[in-house]
Amino acid sequence: MKYYIIVGEASGDLHGSKLMQGILHNDPEAQFRFWGGDRMLEAAGGKGMVKHYKETSFMGFWEVAKNIGTISAQMRLCKRDILEYEPDVLVLVDYAGFNLRMARHAKKHGIPTFFYIAPKVWAWKESRVKKIRKYVDELFVIFPFEIDYFKKWGIDAHYFGNPIMDAIEERNKVLAGKEEFFRENGLDERPMIALLAGSRKNEILYNLPFMVEVANHFPAYQFAIAGVPWLEKSIYDGCLEKSIGNVRYLCDKTYPILSHASAAVVTSGTATLETALLDVPELVCYWCNPISAAIARVFLKIKWVSLVNIIMQREVVTELLYTDMVVERAVDELKAILPGGEKHAKMLADFADLSERMGTAGASERVARKMVELLRAGKA
């Protein structure tokens, strides 16, 4: 069967690639055309990519507004390409603003649509639920609480676990030991704290300088920036002007950094959940364009922004957002979660509870199997 898959960022590329591998296990003759990234390109045998997510990823209200012309052109291209490819199914992975428009387009032309990693309508833009119900044929969610949420809207969603568990299991298989990792990356004997400033340029420019200021208060520790390979190193270098020299940039090594870190300072997003599932105490800090921040305050429907707190429905990790990002407070919070700090043991106990709720690895394979079953049943 022919699958057209659309993702819009790095995490989508990862989960999309795992989904493609699962589809191939259950449908060896599967053909793919997709908007994605390097991981999906590898999973597809080096062919089928229309656009790389680096060309399509725009974060925040202001950034989207500035690039509306580019986004509109990309949507027109995508719609044409879907019709020309004539897929058996359109598979949408997260990336709600773009993908729900493609779902509407597919519905209009009679193309079955599966949505994997549901839009976070429980957080904001709840009006999108009506679009999901109208345009999406099968919805696959990755958080257990989403089953009941969508059911109250008349949508029977599928839940097979969270693909983050798959990624963690895979990375743990090839993880180097701490001494070897420190030696290979020029790190000294001091304990390490991870800095995860985001995966987009604007996130890094807004958040990393603050993290560096916090790091200056911990000369007994070394800090490792988890850099992403699709952004130039110069972006990170520009944020290190005020560093006292205990911050090192490492590229494309997020999981090894976290696995050997004593704690982490993390921007909001999927990284907050990954950090917790790797049992690394964390502090969440997030700043963005002031216009985007002001709009978010009005429309966000949830009490917390980190996935850890949302899933647990209580404050497990401290969130310092926007004007709450004060260096002195961040320093105090980081001290509290480091080994020996008053919040350290409790946070790790909460993370164990979180991990149990998230279930086991294998979600990508289970979702793929169900997708193939549904498609074959529809063709019977």
What does this molecule look like?
By secondary structure, the protein is an alpha/beta fold. The protein has 18 helices and 13 strands. The protein has a 7-stranded parallel sheet with strand order 3-2-1-4-5-6-7, with helices on both faces. Strands 10-9-8-11-12-13 form a 6-stranded parallel sheet, sandwiched between helices. Strand 2 (31-36), helix 2 and strand 3 form a beta-alpha-beta unit. Helix 1 packs across helix 18, helix 5 (96-108) runs parallel beside helix 6 (128-135) and helix 10 (201-215) crosses helix 16. It is globular, with a radius of gyration of 21 Å. The mean pLDDT is 89.
Provide the fold topology.
Layout: E1 2-6, H1 10-26, E2 31-36, H2 38-43, E3 49-52, H3 61-66, H4 68-85, E4 89-93, H5 96-108, E5 113-116, H6 128-135, E6 138-141, H7 145-151, E7 158-159, H8 164-173, H9 178-184, E8 192-196, H10 201-215, E9 222-227, H11 233-237, E10 247-251, H12 254-259, E11 263-266, H13 270-277, E12 282-286, H14 290-299, H15 307-312, E13 319-321, H16 327-337, H17 344-358, H18 363-379
Parallel strand pairs: 1-2, 1-4, 2-3, 4-5, 5-6, 6-7, 8-9, 8-11, 9-10, 11-12, 12-13
Helix pairs in contact: 1-18, 4-5, 5-6, 10-16
In what range is the share of β-strand residues? 15-25%
Helix content: 40-55%
Please state the structural category.
Answer: alpha/beta
Note the overall shape.
globular
- In spatial order, strands of the major sheet run 3-2-1-4-5-6-7
What's the number of extended β-strand segments?
A: 13
Mean pLDDT: 89
Question: Count of helices?
Answer: 18
State the end-to-end CA separation: 13 Å
Main sheet specs: 7 strands, parallel
Q: Please mark out the parts with pLDDT under 50 across 5 or more consecutive residues, or reply none.
A: none
CA radius of gyration: 21 Å
